[in-house]
Design a protein that fits this description.
Distance between the termini: 28 Å
Shape: elongated
Strand content: 5-15%
CATH class of the largest domain: Alpha Beta
Largest sheet: 6 strands, parallel
CATH architecture of the largest domain: 3-Layer(aba) Sandwich
CATH topology of the largest domain: Rossmann fold
Number of domains: 2
Oligomer: single chain
Number of helices: 19
Radius of gyration: 25 Å
């Protein structure tokens, strides 16, 4: 699909990141139409290429999931020729991203903010790290798992009497990536007005801590740690998993007093709607231990499919607890184009999840398969003015692969 009409058409992004937070950011920018040039280490590549099995062919499924819509070059930034190459890339770039964690490393390779912004004052420069560029822990290594733990979210996840539990996907990385996209778009908009680029300092820790949201509000109000509650919601009742007659579980979301009334009417229990213990949400929270056994007993009276049909018809939010296969096979999800299919020259048809943004006039574009290591090195070098002889010399010197 042509990207000329995409929102970020004409924006050039140089991506010197690896693993997940940075590549997830730049995949979204690529979906929005940006020309993303992904820099990887010759012979090694992005760390996520080694995060396998499973594989598709010889490619890590992890890598394939977050690297579409990019052109890939294999460049050794440690070499003198590599520094010159990346400076040429930055000269006409709009955005540069790195996740090298220390300022010393950035300066050593000549890709710190001061150096690149002197070359290109309109550059939006993005640093992604575990803890950011300032503060007592600046420069320390950070990973998704550690950020989940330190943010307070792992302590709140899992069964009430069980062990702390990490979220099964790299939520800290992905959240940092999403906020980074927002920051980049804001910086580009600011540049439209001022002409000047700026520095973005993004951290996994802060991104993950945003998930505390209402739980942080609970702590600020009461001054004590919120307890682990399992599926129970601290401010809404009934709002959790329930088990139907056939043993299947589904989520029941009675998030307002109006919905509570609709639920009571649908299950033919008007007495619950008028019971002074349960009239308002605050009443239901105060009398949770009395209410939930009643609700659970009602739900055990019919199958999951029967309840989903009846409750949805009554306007009561509810949903089956799907497996991954069931979620990805949902006809509604597929009708909305959420599964992206791209032809890979070595692997055939590969699938990934779309970026869930639907723009009526400037739609997102899914046009490039995740690049093989160094797939576009010659192409990008030629665009920077390197001759075929120059490119051959860079390859002979181990700068380019």
């Amino acid at each position: 699909m042509n990207s000329d009409n995409a929102p970020l058409s004409g924006i050039k992004v140089v991506d010197q990141t690896q693993a997940l937070a940075g590549p997830y950011t730049t995949m979204i920018l690529g979906d929005l139409g940006a020309d993303v040039i992904k820099i990887e280490k010759p012979g090694i590549g992005d760390n996520s290429r080694q995060w396998a099995p499973p594989y598709i062919g010889d490619q890590s499924c992890y890598y394939l999931a977050v690297n579409r819509n990019k052109r890939g070059i294999a460049l050794d930034i440690r070499a003198g020729g590599g520094r010159e190459f990346i400076h040429k890339l930055a000269r006409d770039a709009d955005v540069f991203l790195t996740n090298l964690r220390t300022e010393a490393a950035l300066q050593r390779h000549g890709i710190d903010y001061e150096t690149l912004s002197a070359i290109n004052p309109s550059l939006v420069y993005v640093s992604i790290s575990g803890y950011g560029r300032i503060g007592p822990r600046a420069g320390q290594p950070g990973y998704d798992l550690v950020s989940q733990a330190e943010s307070g979210t792992v302590a709140l996840t899992g069964e009430v009497d069980g062990a702390p539990m990490r979220f099964p996907t790299p939520i800290a990385d992905m959240t940092c990536g999403l906020f980074t996209v927002i920051g980049i778009l804001a910086a580009l908009r600011s540049r439209d007005q001022s002409g000047a680029g700026q520095f973005l300092d993004m951290s996994l820790q802060e991104g993950q801590m945003t998930w505390l949201a209402n739980l942080a509000g609970e702590y600020f109000a009461e001054g004590r740690d919120p307890p682990r509650r399992g599926n129970r919601h601290p401010q809404v009742v009934p709002y959790e998993a329930v088990q139907a007659k056939d043993g299947d579980w589904f989520m029941l979301g009675v998030a307002s007093d109006n919905v509570w009334g609709a639920f009571c009417r649908q299950v033919d229990r008007g007495d619950l709607a008028s019971d002074p213990r349960f009239i308002t949400n605050a009443d239901r929270i105060a009398n949770y231990d009395a209410l939930l056994p009643i609700v659970r007993d009602i739900i055990r009276g019919k199958t999951c499919a029967e309840w989903l049909t009846e409750l949805r018809a009554a306007g009561v939010p509810c949903g089956r607890i799907n497996t991954v296969a069931e979620a990805l096979g949902d006809p509604h999800v597929n009708e909305r184009g959420f599964i992206v299919e791209l032809e890979h020259p070595a692997l055939g048809l590969i699938k990934s999840l779309a970026t869930p943004i639907h723009l009526s006039d400037t739609p997102l574009v899914y046009r490039r398969h995740p690049p093989r290591l160094g797939e576009h090195s010659d192409e990008v070098a030629g665009e920077l003015g390197y001759s075929p002889a120059d490119i051959a010399r860079l390859r002979a010197d181990g700068v380019l692969a």
